[in-house]
Amino acid sequence: MTDYQAKQLGALVQRARHKKGLSRFALAERTGFDDSWLLRLEQGQYASPNPVHLARLAEVLDIDVAAIDRVSHDHLANSLPSTRIYLRSTQKLSPEAIDEVEAAVAAISAKDARRRAQGGRR
């Protein structure tokens, strides 16, 4: 990620934090991240921030991960391991079990897409 992209990402996070009415310290409490890390991120000092941290920030601040990828030119998407690799390495699941997880996620994703297409949750 370029310096410009890092600054754009920091501004995006800061805007989302302000929109939620959170101080950096409150956000640090909610995420478990150090407030000085958050400050440096908001100032655009990280060219390659931890993608797991970015995903957690997106969740807490209601940031669309696509917005993070737009400003960072796909840093998040390109940095995260595939579901298969993640499950194999962290959960020590067999290939068959991973197939089941992927099928379940696909079914849930399809259900969620239908729900969103209908205009909300039911």
Please give the number of β-strands: 0
Q: List the helices and strands in order.
A: HHHHHHHH
Our count of helices gives 8
Span between N and C termini? 40 Å
CATH superfamily of the largest domain: lambda repressor-like DNA-binding domains
Structural class category: mainly alpha
For the record, the count of structural domains works out to 2
The largest β sheet comes out as: none
Globally, the shape reads globular
CATH topology of the largest domain: 434 Repressor (Amino-terminal Domain)
So, CATH architecture of the largest domain? Orthogonal Bundle
Mean pLDDT: 89
| CATH top level assignment of the largest domain | Mainly Alpha
How large is the radius of gyration?
Answer: 17 Å
Q: Runs with pLDDT <50, length 5+? A: none
- The percent range for strand residues is under 5%
Fraction in helix: over 70%
Primary descriptors:
122 residues; 73% helix; 434 Repressor (Amino-terminal Domain); 2 domains
Written description of the protein model:
It is globular and about 45 Å long. By secondary structure, it is an all-alpha fold. Helix 1 packs antiparallel against helix 5 and helix 7 crosses helix 8 (95-117). It has two domains: 3-79, 434 Repressor (Amino-terminal Domain); 83-117. Helix content is 73%, strand content 0%. The mean pLDDT is 89. The chain is built from eight helices and no strands. It has helices at residues 3-19, 24-31, 35-42, 51-61, 65-72, 75-79, 83-91, 95-117.
Compose a concise summary of this entry.
This protein has 122 residues and is mostly helical. It is built from 8 helices and no strands.
